[in-house]
Amino acid sequence: MKLLHRIASFVSWHRRAVAAVLAGLCVAGVVSVVQSPPPGEPVLVAARPLPVGHTISAGDVTLTEAPPRLVTPGTLRDPDAVVGSTTAIALEAGQVLTRSTMLSSDPSRDGRALVPIAVQDPALRSLLEPGTTVSLLVALGERPEVVTDSARVAKLPSQEGGGLSLPSGSGMVVVEVPSEVAGEVAALGQSGQLVIVLGAL
């Protein structure tokens, strides 16, 4: 009983110091929790620098971990799903792969379709490269009408890879467009009625 009385007396006389020590321990615990990094999530990154229009092989990508806050619904995680796809932009080594950085090897899975269109002007074709975003317009009335402002160049004449080739000098360019306008783009584009504007309107 005397021991308990002495402990009680000590705590009573030094309650401020004891409270400060306990508060310090709590703060230390909170800081420890805050500073502990959350577990990473697996993501695909470029294993080496990749140029625009490059057809992805298994050795071009690798899995690594990224903080969850950097992972978006468009972040790619399955190496097998990107093999055969084409880069829409130039990628640095270690850059995270997302849907927007790739031209899908199977666009139909994302509601897109590949359509060849005629681009007879060599000067205009020289401005295009795989991954370039373009708007497609048709001038049937007084003012041009936008068919789609989210088309992307997928393949140029004589470009290798991807299972779809165009003869050099054919004047045809393959574009990736929303599936719902693919028929209209094909009909207008293959008859040379489409106007191409670089970028999204």
TrEMBL record:
This is SAF domain-containing protein. Signal peptide: none annotated. Residues 41-103 form the SAF domain. InterPro entries: SAF. It holds the Pfam family SAF. The lineage of its organism: Bacteria, Bacillati, Actinomycetota, Actinomycetes, Propionibacteriales. It comes from Tessaracoccus oleiagri.
